[in-house]
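Reopening this ticket.

The earlier resolution said the output was attached, but the attachment link was broken on my side. Pasting everything inline this time so it's all in one place.
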Amino acid sequence: MTPAPRAAIVAIGSEMLGPLRRDTNSLWLTGRLEEAGFTVVRKSVVGDDPEEIGRELSAAVASAGWIFTTGGLGPTADDVTVAAVAKWAGRSIHRDADFVAAMRRRWERRGIPMPAVNEKQADFIEGARVLANPRGTAPGFWLDARGVQVVILPGVPSEMREIYGGSIEPELSGTGSGTTRRRVLRVAGMAESAVEELVAPLYEKWSGDPVTILASPGEVELHLCVRGSPEEAGKRLAAMEADFREVLGARIHGQDGDDLATSVGRLLKEKGKTLSLAESCTGGLVSALLTDVPGSSAYFLGTVVSYADSAKEGILDVDPGTIRRHGAVSEEVALEMARGARGRFDSDVAASITGIAGPDGGSTEKPVGTVFFALADRGGRELAKKRLYGGDRSVVRRASAMFSLELIRRFVGEVQA
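Inline output:
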């Protein structure tokens, strides 16, 4: 098989160099380019600075034959991508009068006069192919410059995807000699090292195909990746996945990389069960994850965020004596919270969480990160677990929420927890 074409992606926008905005376009573009047989060898983010953009393009040329840029095509002064690329490529720019007129008509159909600054979006690079933008006014461009193909796309995700799908993707078909296929397997409630220990014997068998393990609070992801012809890659990925599933078994949740809340929801629907929650230290995070899934009202009835002891006692009917004897963070209280939630909502299953998220509130007996979980169902079946988490408050809360969902999945699916 001939080597895959190599691509670089340059996301342009000073806002993405700060803490408030992320570059999501590169992730989407990578997936589509891999499907077309490309290998993405470089990704970068640069600010709205023509000199920096030019330097990054020159750096990308050293490792890739295709460069895709996103962002910086708007009408404002900080949108400098077209000018920067033209300067780097040694091309002139001209303002297209027909495109200006078309933009003006588009604005007038909306009953709004077009601001003069929008005329900037009719600045075309000499020799570049103009890519129509059905969703906005800023077109994209495709040019051959300095020995590489340069594709310039808007930063607005919907516009970038529309132009790529309509004008770029059809022409990339067949450019690469193969395709890349990926699969994500998710495991919750296990440490990254424990997952690694189980799957390590498979690495030698699949040494030619990369496996990446990524950990986040409460969950481990295994990213499987193969490259080849569409048929060959599909078969090899299926065989690879089967090996990993055989080793990990029911520890893997979901289908095709579904998140844990989606997996739990699908199982509840399949079983015809309803769920309620009682959350303390997670403050409603589990219910937020569940209700992020469309259609969750079919199985999720509600939650009680019983942060204070008075709420545990008054709403969930936790015995004050249980709290005095064992403390609010205890297995006994967790069980009474689960029973109280199940009774309050008349659900088939209820789950509870009570713990110490920190940074204060811990003791020698129950340090920060101590969390108790419980479940109870309509038939009287119950389960309680304890975990001790490291990390800051957000890590403890997120890990606790994920472990609670995993316990629910196993409890409802009657898999050993």
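Reporter confirms the inline version is readable. Residues 6 and 39 are 5 Å apart (CA to CA). The chain has 13 helices and 17 strands.
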